[in-house]
Amino acid sequence: MAKNKIIIIGGGASGLMAAIVAARRGAKVTLLERKDRVGKKILATGNGRCNMTNVHCTYKCFHGGHHTFIEGILKAFNVTDTMSFFQELGIHPTITASGKVYPRSLQAGSVLDVLRHEVERLKVTVLCDEEVIKIEQNKQFVVYTKQNNKYYGHKIILATGGKSTPDLGSNGTGYELAKAMGHTVIRPIPSLVQLKSDAPFLKQLKGVKITGKASILDERDHILREEYGEILFTDYGVSGPPILQVSRIASDRINNNKNVYLSLDLMSDLSKKELDKALIERLTGMPYKTIQDNFIGFINKRMIPVLLKETGIAPNKKAADISKQERQNLVIWLKGLKLHIHGTHQWNQSQVTAGGVKTTEIDHQTLESNKMPGIYYCGELLDVDGDCGGYNLQWAWSSGYVAAVGASQS
């Protein structure tokens, strides 16, 4: 029998993993990448340091597809497997207190380099500037590209990515290919992305960073998710790690025309009672100062005029004259600044795509299509997305491995 010919469409993390695994298993592999080089998005991960995975990775860190589907793929190629795989290629891992795993070099380029070197060693044919526009099945699969070229293979692995950061390679074309083969695509939405608000004071707070708690609320003020960390105010809304973590829920609600709000606890280290006590001590300890001057050294100086305006307190009012109700209003604002969220940043700013090919239409053990046998799916193209912290790259490695094992079987 002729050697198994596998065509991999997409040269990102999952595509490169699939290429290496399939080639190691004896397949003749051709990888088609629409950009001028493979792995561009890898270089941008972890702020250029490449957060390869996370030792705390479980199915609970993911959204979209059913948890049994996600759990099975993660077990087939787990975090330990990932670290061993890269150590064999020369990447020495370093693990942070939060479980994030980086290359010891703290350079994303190191991860991409060892993947590219292994692809070259295995004699995988890598063809860049080739954008796939159609796939047909006769005796073999025929892949047509925008550049008027045709490629033939026994199996196809789709690793085109989602719609996030299209400048780095993933522009959503994989969804059209999947639809053409009869698949259902859950509408893609941006995730791990900054949130937009129309609060009038945001321009005044642009660049201010606060360590606090961010909570996504529905229209009844029910908390849907909350995260703690550094919150960054921008002229359009809010950013920072906790904002990215809660952004999927906000994006989903906006996509479904539902109201969504963000509550910010800017004094999360203090309870309301403790904050009130701290304010009393401050106001009585320096009663001669204006309230504006009294707050210097207690909260970010640029936030003081906003706080006072939003609570209706005159900046030149003496601390001694602040009423109990005014003090309580200060506590309420600092412990629960509420913003209406009307949108997210654009695809170019989102780190990952939520939504994608419906996982019930994919074999949960091999990632082969139930609609068109011989086609395999992996990575962000599937309706699986993870939290921030290395989980999405782990999904790429795991799903790329499983798809390659499935496709390389006779």
- Distance between the ends: 10 Å
The assigned structural class equals alpha+beta
Major β-sheet strand ordering: 13-16-15-14-17-18
Q: How is the biggest beta sheet arranged?
A: 6 strands, antiparallel, barrel
Instruction: Report the CATH architecture of the largest domain.
Output: 3-Layer(bba) Sandwich
Here the CATH topology of the largest domain equals FAD/NAD(P)-binding domain
Write out the CATH superfamily name of the largest domain. FAD/NAD(P)-binding domain
Shape: elongated
The residue-averaged pLDDT reads 96
**Briefly, what CATH class of the largest domain?**
Alpha Beta
Strand content: 15-25%
Q: Give the count of structural domains.
A: 3
Q: Helical amount among residues, as a percent range? A: 25-40%
Number of helices: 13
Low-pLDDT parts are none
**What is the number of E strands?**
21
What's the alpha carbon Rg, rounded to whole Å? 25 Å
General description of the model:
The model has no long low-confidence stretch (mean pLDDT 96). 32% of the residues lie in helices and 25% in strands. Helix 1 (13-24) links the parallel strand 1 and strand 2 (28-32). It has a six-stranded antiparallel barrel. A five-stranded parallel β-sheet has the order 7-2-1-11-20, covered by helices on one side. A three-stranded antiparallel β-sheet has the order 3-6-5. The chain has three domains: 5-190 and 354-407, 3-Layer(bba) Sandwich (FAD/NAD(P)-binding domain); 194-266 and 337-344, Beta Barrel (Elongation Factor Tu (Ef-tu), domain 3), CATH 2.40.30; 272-335, rRNA adenine dimethylase, C-terminal domain (Helicase, Ruva Protein, domain 3), CATH 1.10.8.100. With 410 residues, it is of the alpha+beta class. The chain has helices spanning 13-24, 40-44, 67-76, 79-88, 108-121, 173-180, 202-205, 241-255, 272-285, 291-294, 304-311, 324-335, 391-407; strands at 5-9, 28-32, 53-54, 62-64, 93-95, 100-103, 125-127, 132-137, 141-145, 150-153, 155-158, 185-191, 195-197, 209-217, 223-233, 237-239, 261-265, 337-344, 352-357, 375-377, 384-386. It has 13 helices and 21 strands.
